[in-house]
Every structure is written in C-alpha cells, then in structure tokens.
C-alpha cells in the first residue's frame, strides 16, 4: 500500500514538474519577442562604427561607448531630458489639480455623459492642433516657452487622468462617504480628507501613465518647442542627417530616452496594473 | 465659521459646475479655437498662410474628397484594415496572454515588467529600431532567416507585406495593454464559479470559454474601445517605418492628412479631411460605447 | 450650464479667428518700420556693423552645406556684432517647422534655407520670400566686395519668380555616376560607362548578390526618385512637360525610360529597392556593396571621408551616361532667402550676403561644396575627376524637377509610377495613371 501511494505521488510530482517546465518553456518563447527588440536596441547602441556598416548583420562585436559619447556631446541631451521632465511634470500636476475634482464629481454625482465628452477630446488627431496652437502662441509670444508646451500636453494628460480616476472614485464604498456626511462634513472636506487618501494608489497610477504619454509625445515637440524647450523625442532625429543614418547613435539616444521611463515603470508596475484595471472595470 | 460653512454649502449645491467646470473650460479653451478653425478652413482654400486671406470655396473640398480623391479611398481602406486587424490581434493575444500568466509562479513580477516594456517605450524610438531590424541588408531578421535556411525577405519594401508588418509592430506594442487590463480583471474575479465548474466536471478549455470569458468580457471591451480610438490615430510608427509607402500601401487617413497639410501645403483641403476623419472616429467610438452599455 | 459655456467658447473662437485675419496686416506695418529705420542710411557708405547688437534667426535643414557653414558663423558675428541663432533640423522636420511658422506668419524667422526647384513657385505665390532686388542694388546695404555679377545669371533666373528675385543659391548639385574604380578595373573595363548599355554590361559583370555586391543602384523610394529619373527621361527623348504645360512623360519614350530605370534598379540593385533613398544607398556604397550608383553630387564628400567610407580611395566620378537620344544631365540646388515677415530684413540681408559672398563660398568650395559663383573653383583637395565631371554635367544640366507649382504632390504621383516599375508591375498603365494625376493636380492648384 505504502509503495503504491509513493508511486502515484511520484508520478504526480513528475507530471507537475513536466507541466511546470512546459509552462516556463512556453513563457520563455512568449517573452522572446518582447525582450528581443530591447536587446536589439541596446546591442546596436554598443556597436562600433565598423560593425554597423558591415554588409551582413553582426551578432558579436566589441562593445563601445562611443555612440553614447556622441549622443551626449553632439546634442544637448541633458537639457532635452530636463525639458521633457519639466513639461511632463508640469502638465501632470495641473492635470491632477483640475482632473481629480472633475473625476470625483463625474463618478459620484451621476454625470457619465461629461466623462464621455472628456474622452472625446482624445478623438481629434494631433495635427488638428498644430497650426492653430502655433498661431495663438505666436500671437501671445509663447513660442519656445515651457508654458506653451505644458498647455499643449494638457490635451493628452488631463483627459487621461480624468478617465482613469473615474473608475477609482467609483470604487470608493458609499458608506465611507455617507458616514463623513452624517458627521457634517461638506463634500469638499470629504473629498480631501477621506476620498483622496483612499485612492492614493489610483492617483499614483494615473499620474505615472499620463507622465509616460507626455514623455513619449513627439509631434508637439517639433512644432511648438524651440531651441530652448526642445524635448527628448526630437533628439533622436538629429542623427538622421544628410549624409548618413547614424544607427549606433540613434540606438543610443533611443536607449537613453527609454531608460528613465522603464526604471519608473519597473518600480511601480504594480500600481500601473491597478490603475489600468481600476479605470477599466468601472470606466 | 460662518463664511466657511456658507462657502461649503454653496460648493455642495453646485458640485458639478465647480468641480468639473474648470476642466471643461480648460479643455474647451485649448480645443475650441483649433476645432472651430479647422471646420472654418475646411470650407476654404488657403494658400499663403497669414499673409493671404483664405478663399471661400463652399463644399468644394468635401465634394472632391468623396468624388475624385482616390488616395482618400485608399487611406480609408488602409485605416480600417490596419485598425481592425491590429486591434483584433491585440485583443485575442492579450486575453490569451493574460489567461496564460494568471497563476502563481515565482517570477511573476518580473514577467509583468517585461510585458509592460513595449507599451511604455517611446514609439518613435521603437519604430526606428524595428525599421533597422527589417532592413534587408543591415537588419537582424534577414540574417536570421538566412541562417535558418530561408530566403531573405524585402520586409517593409514589399508592398504586400508592408501594412501587415506595421500591424505586427502595433500589435507588439499594445498587446501588453490588453493583457494587463485583462489580467487585473481576472485577479479580481471571484473563485466560486470556477470551483463549481470544476466540480461539475468541466475541463480547462470549457472553464475558460463558459466561465472566464463571459465574466471578464466587460473589462476587455472597455480596454478595446480605448485602444480602438487610439489605434485609428496611429501615426508615429507609420511615419517612421514607411512614411506611407511603398507607393501608398501603408498610407492611413492620418498620414494622408499630414502629407496634405505639411508636404502639399493644402491647408483648406487637409482641414476638410480632418473633419471627415473626426466624424468617422466619433461615429466608431460612440457606436462601440453604446454597444458596451447595452451589453452591460 | 453647458449652453452658456458653448456660446462663450464660440465668441472666443470668433474673436481669435478675426485676430488671426488681422495678422495678415502685419507685414505692411513691418515694411514701414524697416524703411523708417534709417540706421543704414545714416553713414554715407556700406557698413557691416550697421545692425550691431541685433539678433536674427536662421532656420536650416541638416545638410553638408549647413554643417560646413555653421562653424564659420562666428566670423560673421565678430564682423557685424549681430547674433545669429541657428536652428538646424533634419530635412522633414525642417520642412514641417518652416511650413507651420510661415503659415502662421509669426515673424520669427529672418533667413531660411529653401529649395527653389521644390518649393519656389509655391512659396513665391504665398508671398513668403522677401524681394532681394532692392537690397542687392542698394550700395548702402550691400558690400562693395559682394560682386553680384559673379553669380551665374541662368541660376539666378531659376531663383526669380514673377520678376521678384526671391533667393540666392548656396549649394548646387548635379546628378552623377559614382563608380568603383577597383571593381571595374578588375572586371576588365578601362573606364566608366558612357552609355546605358555599357552601364548594364558593367553592372552585370560585377553583380554578385551572394557576396553582398550589387552592380548598380539608384533611389527607389517614391517621391525621392523623381529628381533622379529626369536624366533618364531626357536621355530617352521624353520630358516632364510639353509646350502646353501638360504631362508629357507618358509618351512612348517616357514609358520606356521609366521602365528601363525600374528594370535596372530591380535587376542589379539590392533587394528592397523601393524603400531606398540616398541615405540607405550611401551607407551601402560606403560599406562596399555597390559598384555603380547614380545620385546627386552632394554625396561625394561622405564617400570620400575615410572615417565612414571603406571605399574612400577607389571612388570614381562620371557624368550620367547617354541614352538613345542624348546624354542628359540635371541639377538641383539649395538657396537661402529672407522671410517677408521678418522684422529685421536689413540685418537678415547682411547675413544672407555674407553666406553667398565670395569669402564664404570659396571656403566651402575648397571642401567640395559648390556655391553659385562662376569665378570660384574647387579647392586643391577635391579630386580632379570630380571637378571635371561636375563642370561637364553642370554645363548641360536642366532642372531636376518639373516647373509646376504643386511639386511635392506631383512628386508623389510620379514616384508611385517609378515604384511600380521597380516592382516589375505594368509600367505603361502606371505611368499613364501618373500623368493623369499630374495634370489633375496641376490644374486644381491654379
């Protein structure tokens, strides 16, 4: 009897191990396409010039930091990064100040139509705004200013913050709000003292997502930014000069551009998942 | 005490206007002029920018769009094909991926992080890297093909493949969004229905099809609607990988509008195209939203 | 609540729109300001320092010319006391930026690079070029050393629209044939091809795709091909326009020319040819993969640079070969202009005349970048063969683009036909369709 049991147990253990290794094998296969592109980006950025212009693809090579040196020497990369940070931070902060109350009111005071109106601002393609915004900004002397870029990026970050936070605010249990009201607190006090702290996770998630979208935005950068306010995505194009496409430097620029966002993302990936789910489940 | 409570009561009574008003006004201000300006220009021809007044042409632009413009028709077809195909693929793959990794295993956090990457990286940078990968001579993919014994491909230079490849890159980039939303939804699901189904003798596939999917569908639909609206506007990756080519096979409506405005300088005509585009997207978005609401 | 929001928005929008229409009035007032600004006419003679302390903005595309000129700008700033803010962007972004700024009439741009073949007619009609004639002919505004007559008059004609001198040439290019001296010699040929038959013979002899060596290549990416097929068209006896300004390239000769171009690119070029423009082909030639390459002369500097080109020592230069009818040559050019909306036209003119003046042009020409001045030759470092080829080609060269207004749109239409040809599709149908499109586009732009 004891021997039979251990045989069955052994078989089950083996089958489980098989399934587990099968799972991990399949998982590995699935992850390859995701990771390969990033490996490709980083390895290209480390390739010396002669490996890049070789007529056949080189899988092995002597890594060099020359491309990164080029990126930092030939372009004002640090100031681009600073600009991207400033614009992203600025537009997210303003989006929170305006968007959190808006999302709260839409969520708890039964105004889903307003939510849809706000989402509809995401429907217009970016091109619609280029010339008109340029005209307005040049009339009021705002070309090549941070405030102009921040206002333009608000079109991206504000609707996103509102749309995502509606879900989180809907999640807050009615009892918490009711008990606060019974105690005589006004809506504003309830909002500030009770609701906001409860939705900290969601606020973090939507701010970070909005920041990422602002950081990655390219079109407004080219037109509305000037020499002093140019943001990161434009930097990549500086290496596509007449004369050659400098793939090594482009890859290096791409890596440096993506790195901060990836680091932020890795640290807060749990919050991001919550943010997306929260917005989706109720939104 | 008196003033504060009076202000509080005032805000309480007008919550919607005070809380939502500022956002609406802010968005409205930034959007109002561009949208009105675009509609206004769509009825004009405008050469010379601010130095010359636009010339009123009535509905001529719109007439030309719908009767003469072959590139417009091509652009609409490309837009719909690319969007429908890519979003469909992203939905299927995303849901499958979510179900696949919805279990306890050691490196769960790391896996989620890796899957997040494509969605977070700068589209401009990613598109450039993909373009290099697809390069017939310099890229890694043809090298791989040859080593495996296959013939090299033209990739993006092949007019039959180009649009498909753009869809592949778009899918690579955005499947994580669907996957992660679905995964979060799966995590929030109650366990009882699954246990009940397992006790009733349902196998894994039946459990998935008859229990999991229906329960997670509302969440997936919301993600898909959001993704659909964005996908119709896909711009960066197309501009960088193919610029609408070869020929016009990857020219979507957004790219065509861009070319008309910035290459050809036909601001009036591009404004009319923008209005048509806007109406199209609004129509698709609102029909998807009403579909979601009716399904509950 | 929302209704009143909407009407406020509408009112604001209308207000802004009328503001913008008023913006159209500013150039006139700006002109008046320039005239009453008498600082230049206070002295009795030309003075480089007349606008000391001002700042002007120069918008350029990334180009060999721009790369060579920007380090020299410090000399101008020392000479005049004017600060120059240079904004150099990659060509696509440069075009976009220029378009938006000039359309919005912002007045921030003072001097900008422009391609008169590509943009000239449209920009001129939009009134974006300032008339340079009054500046050139005013001895108080133009340095006595400028020597305006040194600039080729036929080139100047191409820069004049409706009698208005709109821009001055800064860089001239001709289409030429780059060839690998070592490969041709090894295959038993004693020089570059002089006819397209010889070209094919040589390309076929060295073509070895298994070893990453391609016999002949040229641009294949849609609109970019149009400047390169001009010589083919004319060598086969066709042209873009007929006497009435209608598309003439769908003639039998034109169809044959485009078919031949496509066939050569497809047969002897690297795969994926329809996505190749000069950027890709330059890289391939530099890495030694192409034996014969036809493109514009501006690529030569990069080919000669040993730091990036593995074939720097063995590059040869030849004029475009002959077809059945003639050995047609073609030219392209970049120019610089003063923006009509600029509020600092006199300071801008100082910069422009310095850019196109004998001093700067000879410095650039020594590096192999030809300006439009007849008297200035290339420097001693520039290979003899290049100089001869350039001068031979330029002597017979015609414009690389058709003289119509909607050039970019027309380029896309013709480019689509060339792409069809390279892909081996039905060439006559594609070319005829392109010709119809051409006529429709030109007509609707009138």
In short:
The complex is a heterotrimer of chains A (283), B (296) and C (446). Chain B has helices spanning 2-13, 15-42, 60-67, 70-101, 108-120, 123-134, 140-147, 162-188, 192-199, 204-232, 236-241, 253-263, 267-295, and strands spanning 44-45, 55-56.
List the helices and strands and how they pair.
The complex is a heterotrimer of chains A (283), B (296) and C (446).
Chain A: H1 2-45, H2 49-52, H3 66-74, H4 77-108, H5 112-119, H6 127-139, H7 146-171, H8 174-182, H9 187-198, H10 200-215, H11 219-224, H12 232-237, H13 247-267, H14 269-282
Helix pairs in contact in A: 1-13, 3-13, 4-7, 4-10, 7-10, 7-14, 8-9, 10-14
Chain B: H1 2-13, H2 15-42, E1 44-45, E2 55-56, H3 60-67, H4 70-101, H5 108-120, H6 123-134, H7 140-147, H8 162-188, H9 192-199, H10 204-232, H11 236-241, H12 253-263, H13 267-295
Antiparallel strand pairs in B: 1-2
Helix pairs in contact in B: 2-13, 4-8, 4-10, 4-12, 5-8, 8-10, 9-10, 10-13, 12-13
Chain C: H1 2-23, H2 26-36, H3 39-42, E1 55-61, H4 64-69, H5 73-80, E2 83-89, H6 91-104, E3 111-114, H7 120-126, H8 133-136, H9 153-158, E4 160-161, E5 164-165, E6 168-180, H10 181-186, H11 196-206, E7 214-217, H12 226-235, H13 252-268, H14 278-286, E8 290-296, H15 300-304, E9 315-318, E10 330-338, H16 345-355, H17 358-366, H18 384-396, E11 398-399, H19 407-422, H20 427-444
Parallel strand pairs in C: 1-2, 1-3, 7-8, 10-11
Antiparallel strand pairs in C: 3-10, 4-5, 6-8, 6-9, 6-10
Helix pairs in contact in C: 12-13, 13-19, 13-20, 19-20
């Amino acid at each position: 009897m004891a021997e039979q049991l251990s045989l069955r147990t052994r078989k089950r253990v083996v089958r489980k191990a098989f399934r587990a290794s099968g799972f991990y094998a399949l998982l590995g296969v699935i992850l390859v396409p995701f990771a390969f592109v990033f490996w490709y980006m980083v390895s290209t950025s480390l390739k010396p010039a002669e490996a890049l212009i070789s007529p056949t693809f080189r899988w092995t090579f002597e890594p060099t930091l020359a491309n990164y040196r080029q990126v930092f020497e030939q372009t004002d990369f640090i100031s681009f990064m600073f600009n991207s940070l400033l614009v992203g931070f600025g537009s997210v902060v303003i989006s929170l100040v305006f968007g959190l109350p808006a999302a709260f009111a839409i969520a708890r005071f039964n105004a889903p139509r307003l939510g849809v109106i706000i989402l509809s601002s995401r429907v217009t393609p970016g091109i619609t705004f280029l010339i008109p915004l340029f005209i307005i900004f040049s009339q009021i002397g705002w070309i090549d200013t941070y405030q102009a870029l921040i206002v333009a990026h608000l079109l991206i970050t504000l609707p996103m913050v509102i749309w995502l936070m509606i879900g989180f605010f809907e999640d807050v249990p009615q009892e918490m709000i009711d008990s606060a009201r019974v105690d005589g607190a006004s809506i504003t006090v309830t909002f500030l003292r009770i609701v906001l702290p409860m939705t900290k996770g969601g606020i973090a998630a939507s701010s970070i997502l909005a920041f990422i979208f602002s950081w990655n935005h390219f079109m407004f950068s080219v037109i509305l930014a000037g020499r002093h306010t140019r943001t990161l995505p434009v930097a990549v194009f500086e290496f596509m000069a007449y004369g050659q496409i400098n793939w090594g430097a482009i890859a290096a620029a791409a890596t440096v551009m993506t790195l901060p966002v990836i680091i932020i993302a890795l640290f807060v990936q749990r919050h991001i998942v919550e943010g997306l789910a929260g917005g989706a489940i109720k939104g | 005490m008196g003033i504060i409570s009076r202000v509080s009561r005032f805000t309480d009574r007008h919550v919607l206007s005070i809380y939502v008003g500022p956002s609406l006004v802010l968005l409205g201000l930034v959007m109002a002029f561009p949208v009105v300006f675009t509609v206004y220009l769509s009825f004009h021809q405008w050469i010379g920018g601010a130095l010359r007044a636009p010339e009123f042409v009535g509905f001529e632009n719109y007439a030309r769009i719908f009767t003469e413009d072959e590139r417009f028709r091509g652009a609409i077809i490309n837009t719909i094909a690319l969007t429908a195909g890519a979003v469909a693929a992203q939905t299927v793959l995303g849901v499958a991926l979510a179900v696949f990794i919805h279990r306890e295993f050691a490196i769960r956090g790391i896996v989620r992080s890796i899957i997040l990457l494509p969605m977070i990286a700068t589209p401009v940078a990613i598109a450039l890297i993909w373009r290099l990968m697809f390069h017939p001579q310099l890229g890694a993919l043809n090298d791989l093909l040859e080593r495996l014994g296959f013939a090299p491909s033209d990739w993006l230079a092949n007019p039959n493949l180009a649009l498909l490849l753009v869809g592949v890159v778009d899918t690579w980039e955005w499947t994580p969004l669907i996957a992660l939303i679905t995964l979060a939804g799966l995590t929030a699901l109650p366990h009882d229905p699954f246990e009940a189904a397992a006790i009733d003798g349902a196998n894994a596939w039946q459990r998935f099809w008859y229990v999991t999917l229906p329960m997670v569908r509302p969440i997936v639909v919301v993600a898909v609607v959001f993704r659909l609206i964005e996908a119709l506007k896909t711009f960066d990756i197309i501009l960088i990988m193919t610029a609408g080519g070869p020929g016009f096979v990857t020219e979507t409506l957004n790219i065509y509008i861009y070319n008309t405005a910035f290459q050809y300088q036909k601001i009036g005509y591009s404004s009319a195209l923008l209005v048509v585009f806007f109406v199209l997207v609004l129509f698709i978005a609102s029909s998807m939203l009403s579909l979601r609401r009716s399904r509950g | 609540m929302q209704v009143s929001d909407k009407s406020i928005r509408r009112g604001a929008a209308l207000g802004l729109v009328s503001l913008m229409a008023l913006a159209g009035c500013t150039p006139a007032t700006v002109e008046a300001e320039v005239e009453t600004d008498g600082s230049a006419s206070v002295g009795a003679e030309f003075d480089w320092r007349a606008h000391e302390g001002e700042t002007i903005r120069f918008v350029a595309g990334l180009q060999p010319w721009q790369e060579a000129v920007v380090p020299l700008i410090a000399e101008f700033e020392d000479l005049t006391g004017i600060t120059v803010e240079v904004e150099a962007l990659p060509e696509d972004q440069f075009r976009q930026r220029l378009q938006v700024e000039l359309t919005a009439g912002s007045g921030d741009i003072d001097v900008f690079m422009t391609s008169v073949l590509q943009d000239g007619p449209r920009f001129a009609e939009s009134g974006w070029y300032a008339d340079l004639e009054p500046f050139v002919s005013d001895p108080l505004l133009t340095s006595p050393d400028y020597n305006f007559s040194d600039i080729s008059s036929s080139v100047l004609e191409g820069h004049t629209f409706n009698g208005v001198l709109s821009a001055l040439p800064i860089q001239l290019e001709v289409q030429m044939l780059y060839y690998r001296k070592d490969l041709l010699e090894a295959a038993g040929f004693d020089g570059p091809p002089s006819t397209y038959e010889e070209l094919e013979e040589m390309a076929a002899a060295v073509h070895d795709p298994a070893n990453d060596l391609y016999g002949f290549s040229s641009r294949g990416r849609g609109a970019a091909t149009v400047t390169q097929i001009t010589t083919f068209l004319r060598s086969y006896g066709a042209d873009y326009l007929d006497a009435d300004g209608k598309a003439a390239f769908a003639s039998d000769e034109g169809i044959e020319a485009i078919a031949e171009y496509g066939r050569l690119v497809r047969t002897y070029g690297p795969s994926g040819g329809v996505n190749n423009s000069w950027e890709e082909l330059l890289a391939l030639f530099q890495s030694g993969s192409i034996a014969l390459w036809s493109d514009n002369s501006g690529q030569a500097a990069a080919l000669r640079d040993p730091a990036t080109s593995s074939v720097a020592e063995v590059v040869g230069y030849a004029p475009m070969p002959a077809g059945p009818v003639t050995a047609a040559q073609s030219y392209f050019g970049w120019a610089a202009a003063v923006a009509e909306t600029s509020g600092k036209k006199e300071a801008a003119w100082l910069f422009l005349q310095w850019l196109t003046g004998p001093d700067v042009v000879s410095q650039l020409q020594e590096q192999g970048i030809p300006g439009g001045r007849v008297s200035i030759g290339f420097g001693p470092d520039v290979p003899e063969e290049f100089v001869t080829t350039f001068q031979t080609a330029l002597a017979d060269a015609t414009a690389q683009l058709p003289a119509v207004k909607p050039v970019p749109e027309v380029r896309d239409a013709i480019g689509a036909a060339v792409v069809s040809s390279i892909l081996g599709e039905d060439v006559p149908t594609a070319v005829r369709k392109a010709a119809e499109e051409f006529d429709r586009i030109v007509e609707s732009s009138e």
